[in-house]
Specification:
By secondary structure, this protein is an alpha/beta fold. It contains twelve helices and eight strands. It has one domain: Metal-dependent hydrolases (TIM Barrel), CATH 3.20.20.140. Helix 4 runs parallel beside helix 5 and helix 10 crosses helix 11. The protein is globular and about 45 Å long.
């Protein structure tokens, strides 16, 4: 079973068409959200599609809009079985005046994740060290690091912490991302598309959810495995990340049923 551990289902121009492909190819998809409105859209889109798991988060770009309304974010965080997308962006976001707002929102959500023992799906661009220090300070152990492209010394420390890393469509184009994919231990690898924006940013066109198969095949070549073995490895990794969390029992049962591992 293919797993897309970081996508933005609500950003498709035709999300129902994407859903149809997800169901046809049976792609387990983590639908990350950018803000409360994004989360509500993903919840609606996921209705009736067992292969989509929506999660609530505040993307760092949206943090300034919500920094004065943290109390309103608490119930949404409590409702969501995972939290994401959340993090910091000191690379693409050039307005340094927003950085304190990003940090405040990020720390609020990380604290929620720690108290509720939830997985976080992280955006780390240009703030890798600050994010690692924050996760350690709050005691967050279950993390998906989305599209890592930062310093190798921080990567090594994150690996030591046991975090999981999504490798996405840039592995099809970038030697830097290929090197990172080689560096991440097989037991900590996951796959993603960051659709629909990821491939559009790289190649100028939106790729369908099926592009996750190309990602898995590319990572498999880097690791000296067949695509089938890499797919099975990612499944096993994701099951280990889910653990016995009762909030994720439905997704775990679906994955075990689809893969015959239950």
């Amino acid at each position: 079973m293919l797993i897309d551990a970081h996508a933005h289902l609500d950003h498709y121009d035709e999300p129902r068409e994407a859903l149809s492909r997800i169901e046809r190819r049976r792609i387990l998809t983590l639908a990350n959200s950018m803000d409360p409105a994004s989360y509500e859209r993903n919840l609606v889109l996921a209705q009736g599609c067992p292969f989509v798991l929506p999660s609530f988060g505040i993307h760092p770009r949206r943090a300034p809009e919500h920094v004065d309304h943290l109390v309103e974010l608490g119930p949404l965080a409590a409702r969501s079985p995972m939290l994401g997308e959340l993090g910091l962006d000191f690379h693409w976001v050039k307005d340094r005046d927003t950085y304190p707002h990003q940090i405040r929102v990020f720390e609020f959500l990380v604290n929620e994740a720690a108290e509720q023992d939830k997985v976080v799906n992280l955006h780390t661009k240009g703030a890798e060290r600050r994010i690692l220090d924050t996760l350690r300070r709050f005691g967050v152990k279950k993390a998906i690091v989305h599209w890592y492209s930062g310093p190798l010394d921080v990567l090594e420390e994150m690996i030591t912490e046991g975090y999981f890393f999504t490798v996405g469509v840039e592995v099809l184009y970038s030697e830097t991302i290929q090197a990172i994919a080689r560096a991440v231990p097989p037991r900590q690898l996951l796959s993603e598309t960051d659709n629909p924006g990821g491939h559009r940013w790289l190649a100028g066109e939106v790729a369908p959810p099926d592009v996750i198969a190309d990602v898995v095949a590319a990572v498999a070549r880097l690791k000296g495995l067949t695509p089938e073995k890499m797919e099975a490895l990612i499944q096993a990794n994701f099951l280990r990340l889910l653990g016995e969390d009762p909030r994720l029992a439905g997704i775990r049962a679906l994955l075990e049923k689809e893969t015959g591992t239950g």
